Amino acid sequence: MKKLINDPAGVVRDALGGIAAAHPQLRVDTEQRIVVRADAPRPGKVGVVSGGGSGHEPLHGAFVGIGMLDAACPGEVFTSPVPDQVLAATKAVEGGAGVVHVVKNYTGDVLNFQMAAELAHDEGAKVESVLVDDDVAVQDSLYTAGRRGTGATVVVEKVAGALAESGGGIGQVAGVGRKANERSRSFGIALTACTTPAAGTPTFELGEDEIELGIGIHGEPGRQRRKIAPAGELAELAVAAILEDMPLDRDDPALVVVNGMGGTPLVELYVVMNDVARVLGERGVPIARSLVGNYVTSLDMAGFSLTLTRLDEELLRLWDAPVRTPALRWGM
Amino acid sequence: MKKLINDPAGVVRDALGGIAAAHPQLRVDTEQRIVVRADAPRPGKVGVVSGGGSGHEPLHGAFVGIGMLDAACPGEVFTSPVPDQVLAATKAVEGGAGVVHVVKNYTGDVLNFQMAAELAHDEGAKVESVLVDDDVAVQDSLYTAGRRGTGATVVVEKVAGALAESGGGIGQVAGVGRKANERSRSFGIALTACTTPAAGTPTFELGEDEIELGIGIHGEPGRQRRKIAPAGELAELAVAAILEDMPLDRDDPALVVVNGMGGTPLVELYVVMNDVARVLGERGVPIARSLVGNYVTSLDMAGFSLTLTRLDEELLRLWDAPVRTPALRWGM
Fold first, then answer.
1. Whether B288 contacts chain A with CB within 8 A
2. Residue to substitute from B267, B273, B323, interface A, most A β-carbons within 10 A
3. What is the value of pTM for the model shown?
4. Residues of chain B with CATH 3.40.50.10440
5. How far is it, in rounded angstroms, from Cα B214 to Cα B222?
6. How far is A22 from chain B, CA to nearest CA, in Å?
7. Do B14 and A58 touch (CB under 8 A)?
8. Which strands form B287-293's sheet, in the order they lie side by side?
């Protein structure tokens, strides 16, 4: 294993130190392991908190900032944050209007966020939870009952954060997050496995010319293993898998996220974007907005995931709203 | 070789198609192979053009936009753009005030940009050229007489673009670009080689536990091959190599760019940033600004480069100025 780390057990601590050094506008508590907007808590503003295992950067820590998350709580690599950590993040951003948790659907995350929500409730804070389960590839998986939460997380966090920023109440913020999740589907394809710092070896083995369709963001098994194919064919497969589950037509302007898994260079993601645009064009689905880059990654895995969100006027407006985080920034 | 491509010969064409699909605010001419700001040419504004081989994305195409480049001309992978292409980009942005070329120091790039500048001159356009040669690792290299142009390119393009946006004349824009280059130094470390689509095999071989110090952005040889070491040690090495060439002290606020080579995930870059900040702190060098992510890449190479720029008031102001490109965006 060759990685730019010091110690497999210290990766999250060191990366948090790097976030603190690079982004003085964020408050990083390396003891509690939370990343918080410097101006939190803001009285009267609904707080938006997310978290989960590390190894998916920029998710979640680099999505903290104006118009998106108020705080993030990163667990160890591919490991849920502990309830105390989620509670600390929740309390750090609670400004009297309640807090919305954005939780990817993995059993550990769901349990620990729920426990933290109960603890917060005992201390007088209102908490609502939004579950993200957008991955159409498999029904249940290694770590999940039901669908996994993957690429749509960035969409849910963006629109919920935007509504919270503009004064939405806790029910509205949670509601729009749930709507974004309901209208989003994702499908991922891996060219290589990822290697966790602790294990030091790839999470699974793929042959020299093999790829895996329908992978999750932790190297969980997908639907099928097959030979590598041209990007156009893979784009076709990903679009088909999504549209089979959520039909879109010419009246459904889509947000398209072509997301890199961490080890794939941007030039390849643009090639995929080109093919996704062609395939959607052939099917008559208009692309209203798009995002191409590494947003919800799986350590050093090579590959991509495609997320399509069926926008409506509200989601489009909230997607376009100003945002200022390390990894997503526009309009201000 | 597993890559998200359709055809090794069509990577640049397809990626340009993806840029066009993802960024409707840019004008992409896939025939001429240029990416141009939609509002170019702007009368009275100095145009800023850069280009070079593809495989370094987001450099240069995704740095086109308000406050940075007016146009980019990507060559084939690791291959200089042809003079006609550079000329087309130059003419597309020439608004009567002249055009500044930002050229990385590689023999082919230098020759082809020079030829294009002469052709543009014959057609009545003033062109000034800024050469980027920031890499302290080696004096000459496979493709270069003198030092290679690497990570500092993003700094030069940003500050020159900002000055052009705010109405600077051609001499001023070129001058500030040259100043940024003179005050910048870079050093890169590879954990793996990269694989070009055309060759299909890695450009060099590194053992399971080997790294190469002082690599360029095309897999050119560096200074030394050695065993992998903790990130802290590598950060120390990179800082030392740079400061040996350009001493910095407490009166030299630095811009720090921790740049991924394309195959390294963000979490590792933040670990490196943490160590770079520590090392600079020990040496008393204040960090004024920083940038962590994949900006000047080398296809799928794993590793990082460090760029330090000795800021002055003008460079700091121009770095902070609003910018709106696909890959770099703030202040608007």
1. no
2. B267
3. 0.97
4. 11-182
5. 4
6. 6
7. no
8. B224-227, B210-213, B184-190, B303-310, B254-260, B287-293
Radius of gyration of chain A, Cα coordinates, nearest whole angstrom: 19
Between CA B141 and CA B150, with CA B147 as vertex, the angle to 5 degrees is: 95
Query: Which fold does the domain A184-311 belong to in CATH?
Result: Hypothetical Protein Tm841; Chain: A;domain 3 (3.30.1180)
CA distance B107 to B53: 12
Half-sphere exposure of A256 (CA within 13 A, CB side): 32
Contacts of A275 in chain B (CB under 8 A): 6, 14
Residues facing residue A254 across a β-bridge:
A287, A310
Contact A192 B15 (CB under 8 A): no
Instruction: Confirm if A118 and A112 have CB atoms less than 8 A apart.
Output: no
The DSSP-derived string for A177-240 is: HHHHHHTEEEEEEESS--B-TTT-SBSS---TTEEEET--TTS---SEEEE---HHHHHHHHHH
Inform me whether the C-beta atom of residue B280 falls under 8 Å from chain A C-beta atoms. Answer: no
Instruction: Determine the residue of chain B that is closest to A297 in CA distance.
Output: B265
Record: contact A4-B271, CB cut-off 8 A: yes
Rounded Cα distance between B329 and B58, Å, is 13
Cis? peptide before A41, omega within 30° of 0: yes
Chain B hits for A52, CB-CB cut-off 8 Å, are none
Number of Cβ atoms within 10 Å of the Cβ of B159: 27
Comparing CB atoms, the residue among B292, B324, B326 nearest residue A22 is B292
By the CB < 8 Å criterion, does A277 face chain B? yes
Strand partners, A184: A309
Mutation choice for A interface testing from B1, B2, B57, B291 by most A CBs within 10 A = B2
Selection from B203, B208, B204 nearest residue B227 by Cα: B208
Question: Which chain A residues are closer than 8 Å to B3 by Cβ?
Answer: 191, 268
Given a contact cutoff of 8 angstroms between Cβ atoms, the answer to whether B58 and B326 are in contact is yes
Question: Each residue's pLDDT tens digit in chain A (332 positions)?
Answer: 899 999 999 999 999 999 999 999 999 999 999 999 999 999 999 999 999 999 999 999 999 999 999 999 999 999 999 999 999 999 999 999 999 999 999 999 999 999 999 999 999 999 999 999 999 998 777 777 889 999 999 999 999 999 999 999 999 999 999 999 999 999 999 999 999 999 999 988 899 999 999 998 998 878 899 999 999 999 999 999 999 999 999 999 999 999 999 999 999 999 999 999 999 999 999 999 999 999 999 999 999 999 999 999 999 999 999 999 999 999 97
- Assign domain A11-182 to its CATH architecture: 3-Layer(aba) Sandwich (3.40)
Q: At what angle do helices A313-320 and A170-182 cross, to 10 degrees?
A: 110
The boundaries of every CATH 3.30.1180.20 domain in chain B are: 184-311
What distance lies between CA A297 and its chain's CA centroid?
8
Closest by CA to B238, choosing from B253, B104, B229, B103, is B229
Query: DSSP readout, B142-197?
Result: TTBSSSPP-THHHHHHHHHHHHHHTT--HHHHHHHHHHHHHTEEEEEEESS--B-T
